[in-house]
Amino acid sequence: MTISPAGLNKTFLDRIRERFFYSSQATGITVVSCFVLALVLWHLVDWGLVDAVFRADPEACYKASGACWGFVTEKWRLIIFGRFPYAEQWRPAVATCAIVLMLVVSACPRFWTRKGSRLLLWGWVLGFAVFFGLMYGGFAGLTPVSTDSWGGLPLTVILTLLGIGVSTPIGIVLALGRRSKLALVRVLSTGYIELVRGVPLITVLFVASFIFPLLLPSGVRIDPFWRVAGGIILFQAAYMAETVRGGLQTVPAGQFLAADSLGLKPYQCYLYVILPQALVAVIPAFVNNLLSMFMDTSLVTVVSMFDLTGSLQLALGDAAWRDFFREGYIFVAAIYFVSSFVMSRYSQWLEKRIGAGAKVR
Fold first, then answer.
1. Longest C-alpha distance within the chain, in Å?
2. CATH class entry, domain 151-315
């Protein structure tokens, strides 16, 4: 049976009518909303494209009535790579691409097999080796670069990855500890979670940067980057623990009894039966934590580390371009939005895929 183009158009129009014109009130709201959106879009196109200046010319920007994308044209490398030496900025570019490539590969279902997981493990080892090797330098003719000069998008990406990747197993352990029958383990896990969740991240970053070094023995020094990364990991682990605990509570008690009847040991019960179900149930909450972590990395600017937002502040230090901060913030916001949108859409696809697989089984 074939469907004519007219039938397709009718189906499309029916869906539009059912969603936006199903009543007189809905019709009025739809018409007014479309008018307002069209008006806003017209002004945005006029300001952002028609009357905009795209060349790096401050005088032309001051004379123009539209946006000054010349600021982004002039300062994009400083915004993206921060204070990393200008001639060496290919290194953070390649390093970030290596990490993003591994994220894309890890998201492909074909690598979710036992053999594929081994390849992913070695791939991540290689990816981290490439990232930190290129960022630190000091070998094969590469100029050494201290972490004080790291910034921009590479810093945002690696802090987010470390914050989520390392905090997840810690959070799982804390969540299991909070449900433990051993009173000491349960009290310590609960105390840590509640203590950390009652402290803002900015306080944790201050402690990691300024207080923790005072507690170290004389002559012992930990790099500021790793202190900040450690603070973010320990902070995020408490929130991840509560996310996992919520997933554990969705697993029926019968699953525990069934695993016990099969003779599985407690760790096998959680590893093969309980945790897979719990983690699937908290995919939306997990992605929410990921997006929150991605945004919260901007707080590292308070401890003199310049992520993507901090690097924009460095770029705005140039007096010739200081008045065009709006274009800079729009550029950074676009990077955050595209990254967050991709992660959000992938989580929705993953949810549907896993849910469909569960129904088939």
1. 82
2. mainly alpha
